[in-house]
Design a protein that fits this description.
This protein is mostly helical and about 110 residues long. It has one helix at about 10-114.
Length: about 110
């Protein structure tokens, strides 16, 4: 190995500058390659963005369908509740009629026995 020199000569400084420039040229080429790869990645992200837009549309469609379904279910439940209310009303009317008939019959028997 060469021994370390104590001083820098103009020639050595010029060699160092030329060598440094070559190294930076190599770095610049590598960054150009990286820039090209980023361009490819950007294009791929554009495709991904388009796919996500399609997914968003599908989710919007699904959300609308679910809301429509829930509204139909709500309407069906209201109809079912109305039917149960009608059944309850009918049972109360029949029960009230039976009780009124029994009371009238009881009073009829009591009055005829007097």
């Amino acid at each position: 190995m060469e021994a370390m020199r104590e001083s820098w000569t103009d020639t050595r400084l010029d060699d160092f500058a030329a060598h440094t420039d070559k190294r930076f040229d190599f770095v610049d080429k590598r960054f150009d390659a990286v820039d090209k790869r980023f361009d490819v990645v950007d294009k791929r992200f554009d495709v991904v963005d388009q796919r996500f837009e399609a997914v968003d549309k599908r989710f919007d469609s699904l959300e609308r369908r679910m809301e429509d379904g829930f509204n139909r279910v709500d309407a069906d439940l209201r109809a079912l509740n109305d039917r149960f209310d009608g059944l309850q009303r009918t049972l109360l009317q029949i029960g009230g009629g039976v009780i009124a008939t029994l009371i009238a019959g009881f009073f009829g028997v009591v009055v005829t026995q007097l």
